[in-house]
Amino acid sequence: MRASSCCWVPTRNSVSNWRLNTLVDLGIRSDTREPNRSPDIAILPFMRVPQNCPRTYKLASFDPDGDRVRCRYGNMRGVECDRCDQPSGFHLDQDSCTLHYQYSPANPRVYGFEMVVEDYSRGHIDLFYSDGSQSHKHPLLARRKRQAVWGQTASPPNSTQQPWWWQTTSTTRQPTASRPNHSSRQPYINTPPLSQLPLQFSLLVDPPVPSCQEGVYLPKFLSPTPANGARIQAEVNKELEIRIRAQATHSVLQDLITSGPTNITMHRTTHDEFVIRWTPIADDLGDHYPICFAVESATGSAINSYQTPPQSHSHSHFHATPTSQSGVYQSEMRCVVVDVRKEQIKAKVTCSESTMTVEVDKSSFFGLQEDHLRLSDSTNTACSLERYSNSTHIIGVIPLNACGTQIEEDDDNLIFKNEITTVQDDSSALITRKHLVEARFYCQYPKKGNVTLGFTAHRKNVTVWEKGFGTFTYQFEFYPDSQFRTRIDPNSYPLEYDIGSRIHMQIEASSSVNNTEMFVESCTAAPYDNPNYHPTYSIIENGCTVDPTVQIYSPSDDKQFKFSMEAFKFIGLHDQVYISCSVMMCEAGNPNTRCAQGCLNSTWFNGHNHRHRKREAVIQSAKHLVSQGPLRLRRSADSSGGSVVNLNLNLVFMAGCLLAAVGMICGVIMYKTKTSRVKYQPLPSCES
Is 149 or 415 the better-scoring residue by pLDDT? Predict the structure, then answer.
């Protein structure tokens, strides 16, 4: 199959029209009893590299039949390529499909790469056709010497730094693909491939960068970014998520360039992570899909002005036009292979205003019961999976601000995530080796939209049961003053404060076990009612006050914590604040508990926290999160407080003259009104 048309963007190696040639052998293979399956290939449609930074690009390729995959430059002029002029400054390792860039002068025009990917059987096979004929395929012979494919190359400035392949000849012009191979034997036997696929892309050589070290100007990948060549499992009808993180100290991360299946999407979170999402469909079952990606950053005037080329897909033909030649840097290219398998766990998720409801078919859990499963944080009694489950389904109703629910934010959505996992019988054990099931689920809410339903702002009390401590309840309330006598009516939430005014709060625990005390380990503020939102503002850490305006008051008993702080607002578009605190219960009077230790600096606490864990498990509870809010800033027009303004004498004099003039006008109006027979009365008015 062939196709051709016009046009490429301006290229420096004379590629003008694009030409594609595809070969598919439809014979039935003797080894698989099925037609040959072509390799799955992927590469980014547009790549860029600084002039002075050598780089290696490993083309993603995977053959479902296990055949040998080989890449080469197109060499049939007008069929596989336009003029077949190879890019200079590059070396292609055909067997590994690896492209090495060494050096080429910067140029605003791109190099056009017109390559062909082929697969060859690893053993002798026969192919049978519908007309009764057949053919024989034999594998490629092993090579006696390394084969290199060259382009015409400009010598780099420092010839002493040339890699090994630049030393293969003493001439100034490197051998090209059209030159004969001078080995004593042809490296490959003359056997046609099972299939041939076109692979075409653009590469721009940018001006030099001050440093080629990754993580300075060029973005450097960080965890949890998958490694190049990683195999990732996906399930039909379930969204796959690939998280990508990078850093660059001297440039600003701008975008993620991707290539893969037609319906993949890319998102950027507020945590400066990129997320690739893809949901395989039933037709994808058993297939393998390469996904390639690279992160771009920018400096100077290129920040926010560089326009990313449109997203490309592995089964489409596309060439991108760069809009900036300087100040934009691209990371290395990484590619992963996604294997699509059938759905392992059948689950249904329903999202409401304040909860996620997940229903899992018990048959997909291979006999596990709800008492063997738990959410990310199951210490809250509201997080028990046994509460709503029945004989056929495991059902969990998970609050958006509890049970270990994680919150993620991008420009358009808030995403709340949780997971169901297996645990062993001993809930007090520190480790488990029976983590057999992991079912992740999430709810996504748009940040912009019409609000049609109300909600209860006041948070309910948190009730917890723990072995050795029985049942205890945490109550988090706001009070109007430092007397802490009457709590603020829950119906008046959200509460409004002026910036700088003092917010009074009290956390109180009630327990069925005597001789216990409560300890507040930390408190944070966030624009959302979820303690896992980041970043947050620290108020108390490790029992120590962090916010300089915090005041702690003497409690009435050991199960109370009273404190206050000055009101503030998060910088940005957030107009509300929630306060979340991590609290715990301890055996009263025991000097070995965390409650007795009080304020600890982070270094000492992190180094000694695990030493007494086994002993503390009996004398203190786990940490529990309680939250309350929202708090909002009172608008200036609604503020009941006055302000003191210093007026100079000139301003006072002008104001006096204005008032005198107004008084004279009013006097004239009153006089004329009294002398007139027309009577005036106020009109009814309605003001909202």
Answer: 415
Residue 558 · residue 428 · CB < 8 Å:
no
* Angle, CA 102 vertex, CA 96 and CA 103 arms, to 5°: 150
Q: What are phi and psi of 604, to 5 degrees?
A: -65, -40
Q: How far apart are CA 5 and CA 17, in angstroms?
A: 6
Cβ–Cβ < 8 Å for 81, 73: yes
**pLDDT reported for residue 354:** 76
Q: What are the structure tokens assigned to 400, written together?
A: 């958006």
- The residue ranking higher by pLDDT, 316 or 70, is 70
Helix (H) or strand (E) holding 563: strand 560-566
| Helix (H) or strand (E) segment spanning residue 415 | strand 413-422
Query: From residue 274, how far is each of 21, 60, 311, 572, 640 by CA, in Å?
Result: 35, 21, 15, 22, 46
Tens digit of each residue's pLDDT (9 = 90 or more) over 111-122: 999 999 999 999
What is the spatial distance between Cα 230 and Cα 243, in angstroms, rounded to a whole number? 13
Q: In Å, what is the CA distance from 283 to each residue of 42, 241, 308, 340? A: 19, 19, 31, 10
Structure tokens at 90: 């590059």
The pair phi, psi for residue 576, each rounded to 5°, is: -145, 165
CA distance 264 to 255: 15
Beta bridge partners of 165: none
Percent helix, strand and coil across the chain, each to the nearest 5: 10, 40, 50
629: pLDDT strictly greater than 60? yes
Strands of the sheet with 265-268, listed across from one edge? 220-222, 240-247, 274-278, 265-268
Three-state SS string over 312-344 comes to EECCCCCCCCCCCCCCEEECCCEEEEEEEECCC
Our CA dihedral for 140, 144, 146, 151, rounded to 10 degrees, sits at: -70
Domains and CATH numbers, the chain: 1-158+172-208 (no CATH), 210-342 (2.60.40.10), 347-446 (2.60.40.3210), 462-637 (2.60.40.4100)
Please check whether residue 14 is in contact with residue 152, taking contact to mean a CB–CB distance below 8 angstroms.
Answer: no
pLDDT of residue 344: 72
Contact 579, 523 (CB under 8 A): yes
CA 496, CA 492: separation in Å to the nearest integer?
9
